[in-house]
Amino acid sequence: MKSINIGLLGFGTVGTGVIKILQQNSGAIERRLGAKLNLKGIADLDIETDRGVKVDKNIITKDAYKILNDPEIDIIIELIGGYEPARTFILHALKNKKHVVTANKALLSKHGSEIFEAAVKNKVDIGFEASVGGGIPIIRAMKEGFPANNIQSVYGIVNGTCNYILSKMSDEGRPFNDVLKEAQALGFAEANPSLDIEGGDSAHKITILASLAFGARVDIDKVYTEGISKITPIDINFAREFGYRIKLLAITKRSGNEIEVRVHPTMVREDNPISKVNGVLNAIEVTGDMVGENMLIGKGAGSLPTGSAIVGDIIEISRNILYGGVNRVPPLSFLPGYIEDAKIKNINEIISEYYIRFSVVDKPGVLSKISGVLGNHYISISSVIQKGRGEKGGVPLVVMTHSAKEKDIQKALSEIDKLDVVLDKSVLIRVENGERV
Ligand code: HSE
């Protein structure tokens, strides 16, 4: 039986998962591929720590270039993460005509165009299934499952840490910091969780999904990104009263001749399946003009689910090597010559429904003052709740709006926050009722 040789850069949690899968499932893989997958080299700065998998010590090195320049290695797996040296290593591998598999969402969201162009130029494949949604085969679905469609939108819960925290806050009525600390203690959240909780990780992932959806170069710096650290149990409870759940959604959709690409806490109707995806699970809903709505749900992180996506890419690339077809499917599914810079709608220009919580003094006339300002900015109210008479430090006054322009909402809020009856900065959460979300 033929062998395909693989080199691994980065022997961490996911790398260990990849090795476990290659060892445990070699039979199933060989029956599907008709060849053996042979791990020929591993590079990592730490060559001592026992990762709990059996590997020949002789194949481990500190020198990544030993792997990158090994003429017998066909496929390089990059699991170092971050921008450098991952970018340099990947470009070096591609130049050496090695196929590459990576989970590196940060790198692809920033330097994807350069890397994809280098892969096509060198006539090798690049697999990045593990970069979004862990084990969920969303990249393959978008590249090969829906190419008959014009994609209209992609909505995703693509960060398990945030979904876990919001689910716990919602189920147990606990504040954000408390749940975050617990998640860190349990190992669900990173010691430095800011990339997750401030939405950066989701922004990386939706940038990649938007590129795939629209066949466009998406500038991550234009992706509006807001995390979950300001969400409170008060808002979660009000959302529930209105029939909504709060999720950190990564959203991209067509909007006239532009696209929207944004990440923020979002109120989602409780009859929408995405509102019921809880804990560390991820969910991604893709809507195509012909196929309609499709949702994929699964484990968005972890050694074995992410390893499953990596090994899936290795098998796909190995099939191309063995049976022909390298570059058959371009990195973004769209032919490189047709890929253009995306026109991304500024957040101020989007149209949405909004939840706004004002913190106000409890006296007659306050509601009319606030609704007056909203009306002056063409914002129409759909419902109002006001509770908690007599509480010290003001009472919450919650307003749900009909569709309005973000710019008008922001102008209205800055006026309202200056009113003497308003005691604190208002809280705004966008509501998605479009398509099915
Ligand atoms: N930190 C991510 C999450 C997983 O919490 O979902 C890796 O992208």
Layout: helices, strands, pairs:
Blueprint: E1 2-9, H1 13-24, H2 26-33, E2 35-43, E3 60-61, H3 64-68, E4 75-78, H4 86-95, E5 99-102, H5 105-121, E6 126-127, H6 138-145, E7 151-157, H7 160-172, H8 176-185, H9 194-197, H10 200-214, E8 216-217, E9 224-225, H11 233-241, E10 244-255, E11 258-269, E12 281-288, E13 292-299, H12 303-323, E14 340-341, E15 351-360, H13 366-376, E16 381-386, E17 395-401, E18 404-405, H14 406-416, E19 427-432
Parallel strand pairs: 1-2, 1-4, 2-3, 4-5, 5-6, 8-14, 9-11, 11-19
Antiparallel strand pairs: 7-10, 7-12, 10-11, 12-13, 15-17, 15-18, 15-19, 16-17
Coarse morphology: elongated
Q: What's the level 1 CATH class of the largest domain?
A: Alpha Beta
Main pleated sheet: 11 strands, mixed
From the 3D structure, determine the CATH topology of the largest domain: Rossmann fold
Bound molecules: L-homoserine
CATH level-4 homologous superfamily of the largest domain: NAD(P)-binding Rossmann-like Domain
Mean pLDDT: 95
Unreliable stretches (pLDDT < 50, length at least 5) are none
The tally of helices reads 14
* CATH architecture classification of the largest domain: 3-Layer(aba) Sandwich
Q: What is the SS-derived class?
A: alpha/beta
End-to-end Cα distance, whole Å, is 49 Å
Helix content: 25-40%
Oligomer: single chain
